[in-house]
Amino acid sequence: MSVSFPGLASNLDTAAIINKLMEFDRIPYDRLDKKKGDLGAEQTIFQTVNTKLGVLQSAVSDLMLNSNFNLVSGASSNEKVLKATASEGASTGDFNITVNTLAQSHAIKSGAVTIGDSTLKNKTFTIDRVGHTQITIDTSVAAAGATNGDILEYIKGQINSQDSGLAASIVSISATEKVLLISSKETGTANKMKLSGGTGGIELGGTSLADLGITNVDTAVNQTQAADNATITVNGVSITRSNNKISDVINGVTLDLLEAGSSKVTVSRDTDKVAGKIEKFINAYNDAVSLVRGNLTKPTDKTKMNPLQGDSVLKEISSKMYDIFTKVTGSPHGANMMSAYGFDIDKGIKVGSQMTGKITFDKEVFKEKFNADPNAVINMFNFKPSDGADAVEKSKEGIMRVLDGQLKEWTNSVNGLMTSKIKGYSSEITVIDERMEAMDLRLQMKQDQLKKQFASMEVALSKLKSQQSWLTSQLAALTPTKTS
Questions:
Q1: Is Secreted among this UniProt entry's keywords (predicted)?
Q2: CA–CA distance from 439 to each of 303, 425, 429, 452 (Å)?
């Protein structure tokens, strides 16, 4: 690394002189750098517009599904007895439901076990369930000197940690005695516990059963809760299920049974849900339009201008979105202007400079029209002309289908208008980068040359100063000394 001290001979700030000379030569480079920044900012705007249009297309795609105009909700007249949840495509209608019994899990208890004894030592406890691996709990592995209290904890831990289908806990009934509680994790008679030799369910066995005092899981000797199925009647039809969440009786409806009793479940079209889908579209449409128009609008400050103020691509997007949404539709059900269904662009605005292109949505008008004739609204949004349709039928194509086709032309990731525009900016920026790189190399070479030239000048001046000093000293030696 070299160290230089510019201006030692000339007393000039040669570094500052070189920087000033280079500032002039860097003007073209700085212009390119600014242009690159401007292009990057414009590209970012188009990328954001493309993202907004993508969000809009997603909302449009939702409204191209007829199922999203058939959204339903379920209501129970007595939510203490049961709750009802309806999903898309659920069967509509009224259903009178009586809950006779709730599904219950099977629960048993052991006898009272004296915790200080060791009668459970070297015993086994087995759990065998159809479709599961048999579990054998061998208490001989318990620590030396383990008491019944320790072994009860061991049995409980083994039951809870393995795929037994059971859950265990322990309660103290006195200072010296404890009881092991066991319950099936799932409800229904199919998950009932049985002693060895039974069929189906969850079979209990092993040498420790008698020592645990488990002798009859069907009576109060050990049973604390009987396994049971849920039984209900739906419009007079008797139904039995193994649990209290039933989703295979009424198509698309889930019933959560809570207690015995009666309730009326009503499943009906939910216009609020449909309106919610429309509002999602409106918000996405307005976001996209605001961004596009905002970059086309002339700033209020007359000394400034938007860089994309007259951009042809943004103008096309703004114009076509307006034309598509305000076209008169001629659906088979007589849909006319969108305003008749609660949609207006720039409602009440008369001055052109104040127009935003945004849609206002009257939810109540829409719901009224939708409830009166759902098919007319669905066709207005989503009517699809048949193959080979004539011009009249084609003119009835749903607005969402027209808008979807246009959005795909703009946002296609391969050859869409927005994609091409963004790629065009990338190409321009790449060219500028290459030019700036070459220019920077030339500038660096020139700066190095100037440094060498000024350094040579300093060396030459230094030599001249040395010669000047020598000559001065020689002349001084030749001059006679004046005597007094």
A1: yes
A2: 33, 21, 15, 20
Give the span between the Cα atoms of 427 and 421, in whole angstroms.
10
Q: Where exactly are the structural domains of the chain? A: 28-66+272-420, 72-103+230-269, 107-225
Instruction: Output the CATH code of domain 107-225.
Output: 2.60.40
**Residue 210's CB: how many other CB atoms inside 10 A?**
12
Show contacts of 316-322: CB within 8 Å, 24+ apart: 316/417, 317/49, 317/53, 317/288, 317/292, 317/410, 318/289, 318/292, 318/293, 318/357, 320/406, 321/285, 321/288, 321/289, 321/292, 321/357, 321/403, 321/406, 322/357
Q: Phi/psi of residue 422, each to 5°?
A: -65, -40
Torsion of CA 216, 218, 223, 228, to 10 degrees: 160
pLDDT > 80? residue 468:
no
Neighbouring residues of 420: CB distance < 8 A, sequence distance ≥ 6 = none
Is residue 242 left, alpha or beta, with left meaning phi > 0 and alpha meaning psi from -120 to 50?
alpha
DSSP 170-233: EEESSSSEEEEEEEESS-SGGG-EEETT--SSEEEESTHHHHHT---TTSTTTEEE--B-EEEE
The encoded tokens of residue 356 equal 């935003």
- Per residue in 122-177, pLDDT (tens digit) is 899 999 987 778 899 998 876 667 899 999 999 999 999 988 899 999 999 999 99
d(CA 382, CA 314): 26
pLDDT tens track for 373-391: 888 888 888 888 787 777 7
Contact between 101 and 82 under an 8 Å Cβ cutoff? The reply is no
CA atoms within 13 A on the CB side of 379: 19
CA atoms 433, 434, 439, 440: torsion sign: positive
Q: How many CB atoms lie within 10 A of CB 436?
A: 18
Q: Are 241 and 230 in contact (CB under 8 A)?
A: yes
Element (H, E) at 464: helix 417-478
Rg of the Cα trace of the chain? 44
| Predicted model pTM | 0.66
Angle at 179 between CA 146 and CA 129, to 5 degrees: 90
Q: Across residues 103-113, what is the average pLDDT? A: 96
331 contacts 378 by C-beta, under 8 angstroms = no
The encoded tokens of residue 208 equal: 């420790």
DSSP symbol at 416: -
Chain-centroid distance of CA 310 in Å reads 36
